[in-house]
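Tokens in:
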């Protein structure tokens, strides 16, 4: 079975449009086979976005790393952030670009394996990280975020308890100056690191 963090050119395409409401605002994005959460906005990402707290988005830079079909970046672009979106999956990149373009939203969407093609510093990095990619890559994404955050920049992630949220939180406390579990719901943890 192909994973959403790989590029499987032989996978048959079945593009669909997902409509959703987040904090009383309507959003849509396109999704496809071979992309995470192809049938609806997954609960963890929705919880992350409804929990995310920010200030003065018009002046803030935000990175959606592992953007998938783009719900985090689309949400942030609609809020007025200067948004970069990256993913290793080319199908996900193309879907994100289409969703942004149709809605008149702007974001820089590009291919990157973790931080390989990233050089900016951000006020916020948000992710529903690809847990199944394995611990080495997962930790590269989460622990490596510190090098791409501005002073007092924040990393916001969502991780399921049964997929190691508690041990991950403990490891993050060794790397970041402050780590808080902001919300817990239906086995999902929203973790904020400064």
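Residues out:
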């Amino acid at each position: 079975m192909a994973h959403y963090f790989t590029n499987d050119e032989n996978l048959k395409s079945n593009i669909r449009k997902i409509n959703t409401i987040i904090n009383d605002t309507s959003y849509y994005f396109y999704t496809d086979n071979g992309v995470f959460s192809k049938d609806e906005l997954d609960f963890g990402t929705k919880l992350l976005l409804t929990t995310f707290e920010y200030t003065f988005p018009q002046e803030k830079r935000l990175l959606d790393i592992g953007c998938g079909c783009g719900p985090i970046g689309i949400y942030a672009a609609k809020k007025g952030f200067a948004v970069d979106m990256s993913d290793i999956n080319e199908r996900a990149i193309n879907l994100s670009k289409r969703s942004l373009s149709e809605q008149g939203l702007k974001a820089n969407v590009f291919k990157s394996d973790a931080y390989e093609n990233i050089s900016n510093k951000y006020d916020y990095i948000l992710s529903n990280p690809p847990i199944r990619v394995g611990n080495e890559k997962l930790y590269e994404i989460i622990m490596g975020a510190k090098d791409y955050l501005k002073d007092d920049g924040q990393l916001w992630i969502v991780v399921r308890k049964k997929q190691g949220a508690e041990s991950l939180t403990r490891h993050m406390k060794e790397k970041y100056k402050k780590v808080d579990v902001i919300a817990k719901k239906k086995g999902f943890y929203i973790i904020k690191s400064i």
